[in-house]
Design a protein that fits this description.
By secondary structure, the chain is an alpha+beta fold. It has one domain. 12% of the residues are buried. Bound molecules: zinc ion (ZN).
């Protein structure tokens, strides 16, 4: 399990069925946008509140992570679209509990 240093999301890079997972940070939530506005990092149009703003446009993190692969057409080299703020290793997720009977 890893934790995204930009959005705080936690995920397994390889899912239980063996498929690889490529994380991309979600846009700011209403709470995160309100905090960014209060901190003076974002200025909304006059009269617009954060809960209205998130329905009209997406607010991306400046340090967002996007692990989806891009290929350089000149060299054929592949790399993540953006490493962003990176990740921090976490303890493995506990195995799922299945109740029977
Ligand atoms: Zn993220």
């Amino acid at each position: 399990m890893v934790k995204c240093n930009a959005c705080g999301g936690t995920y397994e890079p390889v899912l239980s069925d063996g498929m690889e997972y490529y994380h991309k940070c979600p846009p700011l939530s209403v709470v995160e946008l309100a905090a960014a506005v209060a901190a003076g990092k974002v200025q909304l149009p006059v009269g617009e509140t954060p809960d209205i703003a998130v329905t009209r446009r997406s607010y991306e993190r400046s340090n967002q992570r996007d692990e989806n692969i891009q290929v350089d057409p000149r060299t054929g080299a592949s790399s993540p679209k953006s490493v962003g703020a990176g990740t921090t290793a976490q303890a493995p997720a506990p195995p799922p509990v299945i109740k029977v009977g």
